[in-house]
Amino acid sequence: MIWPALIAHADWGTDSRKRQVAVARVRRASGNSHAHARYAVESLAPAADGPEFFGQLRAAADPGQAMIGFDFPIGLPRRYAAAAGITTFPALLEALGTPPWHHFHVVAAQPSEITLHQPFYPMRPGASRREHLHLGLGLSGPELRRRCEGNDAESLFWTLGGKQVGKGALIGWQLIAAARRAKPGIRLWPFDGPLTQLLTGRGQTIVVETYPREYYRHLGPPAARGRWSKRRKADRLSRVPGLFSWAESLPVEWDTTIRRRVESGFSDDRNGEDEFDAVIGLLAMIAVVTGAIDAGVPADDPAVISTEGWILGRAPDGPAPRLGRPQ
């Protein structure tokens, strides 16, 4: 497996002002050997808009590979996919915008608008209930979750509350679909193959799903007892020693400016929590690429490979992560 020239992790959301991307570039002593190679974390900045997002990262990696992680679901629950006649998740991406999928991205405003081809609900708060979604799709709550999400995740298609991920996923899927149509060479893990196979060429961009909260355990226990919050700078500062300890166990070095930002607990404004998760996700991706963490995708479940996808680094039989936003 060839280490990608560039690894980027995007902390994503519906608010474009809070999308932060951490980027690391491989530095090799000589040739393509992994001996003495390291990843230098060199950028932490807002995500570029639209097509420029993939274009800028692809250009920065050229002629090597780029690997990009997003912290939104990349895949569909198997029961929903079967009911909707979707054979693979990439096939759905290709069909977006064409009948019968031309309204897929429109969040239903009324229960009567919910169909298998328009499954996201509701557009706004009000008298909306999850039962409307279950009745409209003919599927129960557990059937609207993927295997990697466990039992306590919010349904992908429910778009209200702090745990909702659907609206961010819709925006992200449209971005990925447009990039795949515009330029061949964008591959989706695990749908287009295992990482060991995808990370063997040049000029490709590999897209993976991440979940920063899954990786907090690598920081060690919080310094203080009780519940910590990534939204509070003081709490982020308490996790910085663990963050650097984890990074030191990996082939990672830091741009001086980025290191200082991490040492300071990230930005004082509301983007600080997003910067924190962008860096955590980046370190996890580096850990998987360099072999410190297994990619985790189960090899005995065809539905995971075809439609559901997987969270990078999530153990196949480990405890299910809580997929809502951390406090």
Largest sheet geometry: 7 strands, mixed
CATH topology of one domain: Nucleotidyltransferase, domain 5
Q: Would you identify the regions where 5 or more consecutive residues have pLDDT less than 50?
A: 319-327
What is the string of helix and strand elements?
Answer: EEEHEHHHHEHEHHEHHH
Radius of gyration: 19 Å
The overall average pLDDT, rounded, is: 91
- The appropriate CATH architecture of one domain is 2-Layer Sandwich
Strand order of the largest sheet: 5-6-4-1-2-3-7
Helix-and-strand structural type: alpha/beta
- How does the overall form come out from the CA principal axes? globular
Q: What is the top-level CATH class of one domain? A: Alpha Beta
- How much of the polypeptide forms β-strand, as a percent range? 5-15%
* Estimated helix fraction: 25-40%
**Count of runs of 4 or more consecutive helical residues:** 11
Please name the defining characteristics of this protein.
globular; 12% strand; alpha/beta; 7-stranded mixed sheet; Nucleotidyltransferase, domain 5; disordered C terminus; 327 residues
What does this molecule look like?
- The chain is 32% helix and 12% strand.
- It is α/β, with parallel strands linked by helices.
- It has a domain at 6-73 and 171-308: Nucleotidyltransferase, domain 5 (2-Layer Sandwich), CATH 3.30.420.
- Strands 5-6-4-1-2-3-7 form a 7-stranded mixed β-sheet.
- The longest helix is centred in the last third of the chain and has 18 residues, at 272-289.
- The protein is globular.
- Residues 319-327 have low confidence and may be disordered.
